[in-house]
Amino acid sequence: MKLFDPTSKPVERAVDLAPRPANLGGLRLGLVDNTKFNSDTLLAKLADRLARRHGMTVALTSRKRSPSHEIDEAAVKTLRAQADLVVSGIGD
Amino acid sequence: MTTDAAQDPQQLIEAYYDAGWTDGLPVVPPTDASVEAMLAAGGLRGDEVIGEIAGRNQVVVADKVAINAVMAGCRPEYLPVVVAALKGLCHADFAYHGPASSTGGSAMVLIVNGPIVRALGINSGNNAFGQGHRPNATIGRAVRLVMMNAMNTRPGLLDRATLGNPGKYAFCFAEHEDDHPWEPLHVSRGLRPEDSAVTVYASNSLYQVYNQLAATPEPLLACFADALSNLGVPNMKGFNQSLLVLAGEHADVLRQSGWSRRKVQDFLLEHTRRTVADFKRAARLPGAVEPADATTWRRLFERPDDILIVCAGGRAGSWSACLPGWGNKWTKAITTRIEIPRRSA
Fold first, then answer.
1. What pTM did the predictor assign?
2. Tens digit of pLDDT for each residue in B201-259?
3. Chain B interface test: which of A8, A34, A39 (most B C-beta within 10 Å)
4. What is the model's pLDDT at position A42?
5. 3-state secondary structure of B209
């Protein structure tokens, strides 16, 4: 007799991570609002603090379709082109 | 992957516990024969892809579904229902990640329609949500085991339920299509009466609605509207779906009234509401209560079709049920036709 493994792991895919910025001064900031309650408020406060501390400017804000959906490719492309640093990920 | 293990059935069961592959209940240890029988009944090759959760890079493959279905205690002929339910979960409009991962702790409610209900003996009558019927218990359980084991949805990891609910073990029932006030659910959603189908629907709670006196629709439906608009409902910040399960004498009241399904939905759309003042007093909306808030109403539904209505349960009794939908309008119930291979039909 033997055990039958009922599990399967996610398919591994190679992802190129952006190089980390050497310093935060003056970077163009992208915000991804996942539409969770108050996520827009929290991101705005965060952006304001980053602007005051590091001179960042908000280049664009992208709103996801819903918290359940991944960000779409078009939004990723725009963020890649227009932002140096992206902030996302508001949970409960 | 297989691993040598003990010969003793009890030790095998313990081995599945030790591996972290169960839902807390003992599982039926699969064998080559039982897994092959399961795949054969589904008309599937082991490497066939059933669906994919794109955001998780997670592919659901038939052999894993078959293994989990055996573990859940399914008979082979149940597999087409399990597969159709999983296709529903993987549908883009179900938006799986939200209801599967949320703190809301949704059960995946499976509603089965069509000839397969009678063929498999899926309970639609007395105690439709309760214990005692193998297909109800094991089909629902198989779907949850696949979610846990093959869709990366483990409690404490990508299942972040604050409380969860008992329906997360299994929640499968059939619609009672006889003596229905209207056409059954799957027909109302575009399929033919002779089709068999399963509708998957995410709900994080269930409460029963009681009314022993109502003989006309208005007072009866007022109870549903009130139940669906309590101050703790999850969906008051945005529209989503809700499910009503009409049982016993309540289904008779509506059938005898001559009201159409749409008329019932329109009534509920209109009456499922609270004032902004109510929501502010309960801190479900921010800010102080303004004078106009007392007469400013907030509806809980956007469209009549957001109110799903099915019939199930015993014919006697004054009970029905409300099952509010999970969180937001981006997760929609999905109805999938059950494909039954010719050789197992």
1. 0.92
2. 999 889 999 999 999 999 999 999 999 999 988 777 667 899 999 998 999 999 999 99
3. A8
4. 92
5. strand
Task: Give residue B234's region: left, alpha or beta (phi > 0; psi -120 to 50).
Answer: alpha
What integer is the mean pLDDT of B44-57? 93
For residue B30, the model assigns a pLDDT of 97
Inter-chain residue contact A3 with B3, CB threshold 8 Å: yes
B52 φ, ψ (degrees, to nearest 5): -145, 140
Whole-number mean pLDDT of chain A? 90
From chain B, the residues in CB contact with A67 under 8 A are: 98, 328
B interface residues, A as partner, C-beta within 8 Å: 1-7, 12, 15-16, 19, 21, 29-31, 35, 54-61, 64, 67-68, 70-71, 95-99, 103, 145-146, 149-150, 152, 160, 237, 328, 330-331
Q: B interface mutation test: which of A35, A68, A69, A88 has the most B CBs within 10 A?
A: A68
Q: Are A69 and B99 within 8 A, CB to CB?
A: no
> What is the value of ipTM here, to two decimals?
0.91
> CA nearest A27: which of A79, A90, A62?
A79
Instruction: For residue B259, give the amino acid letter.
Output: W
Nearest to B236 by CA among B294, B179, B312, B301: B301
Query: What digits encode the pLDDT tens for the residues A45-58?
Result: 999 999 999 999 99
B79: enclosing H helix or E strand: helix B79-90
Q: Residues, chain A, total?
A: 92
Helix runs in A1-92, H state only: 39-54, 73-82
Distances (CA, A) of B150 to A24, B62, B189: 41, 10, 29
